Amino acid sequence: MDEFYIFRESLSPSKIEMFMKKCLFEINCKEPLGMENKAIPDDRISASSSYNLHFPFYARLNLVGVNGDPARTGWCADGKDANPFIDVDLGELKTITGISIQGLGLFDNWVTTFMICYSTNNDGNIFCIKDNGQDKIFNGNDDKNSIVRNYLKYPIATEKLRIKPLSWFGNHLCLRLELFGCSQDLFPDPFDNSGKNDAKLVANEETPRGKIPDNCDRALGISSGELDDLHFSASSELNDQHQPRFARLISDYPIEEISPNSYSSIIKSPRTAWCSGEVNLRQYLEIDLGEIKNVTQIATQGYFSKDYWVSSYRVGYSDDIGPIKWYTEEGVDKVNLVFRSTCF
Q1: Which domain holds residue 45?
Q2: Does residue 333 carry a pLDDT above 80?
Q3: pLDDT for res 298
Q4: Residue 80 has pLDDT above 90, yes or no
Q5: What residues does the F5/8 type C domain cover (predicted)?
Q6: Are 243 and 284 members of one domain?
Q7: Phi, psi at 34, each rounded to 5°
Q8: What is the pLDDT of residue 127?
């Protein structure tokens, strides 16, 4: 979770504030979420199977027995379970930043590698944490009592978490665990809608909604390559082929019209799309226009070669001095219904 940020130029107050919030978040969002202290009740812990007395609700970090019975410790999957997993229902949306696991304690049984998966709603869909487009494999234990903690590169916001053991030591797959994170409202929102609004909107009471002022409808350089790659950033990226700089609308601009000296992905690399590295509602794409400009329209597009697209989004803006504000209509955040999925 520790990171250092080095920039070639001075940052605006709003960006400094954003990084300060991120640092405070990383300090404060490491609290145990209730496996060891039983704040998470037994009925919210389930599994694909269990062996003997090693039920899912005994999968609590440092548990050494119940009512004097040392056999009641740790969760173990049935030996015939071909796809073992354990689920933890947090009861409400939480931000997960890490996990600790332990072996059985009583006998030499522990998990050596595992995956972390989660759901973002109640539709039954499960997503597993990725690394460069592949399922992320986390390292587990090498003995029955030592605690191994894994921090997540990108925190995830979820109510239900699934641990999928992949390999283990001993005649049964067994583990104890704790989750770390914080309440969802502590997650650092890159769009801080507090403070004075210093940005200027073209539309006002005298400009009818939907009417674009004269000479203010030209493209601002994203699809043409006029705006170079250094002006793109995002909350996360799926892999090197789906970086923020690839979030350019596919259009009919002739490549020869772009300066060969332009540092732009439109001529340097194949055009794909930006895809977030995580699937949650805290992902964002940010574009620095380089100077104050009037924005009157936004066009979005899905992944041109795959069935991924965005269905709704909010728009934040800033003059690079004040904090980022949400675009509103009549005091209500404007949500544009366009596409669906996680790629622009």
Answers
A1: 13-182
A2: no
A3: 86
A4: yes
A5: 29-182, 216-344
A6: yes
A7: 120, 10
A8: 85
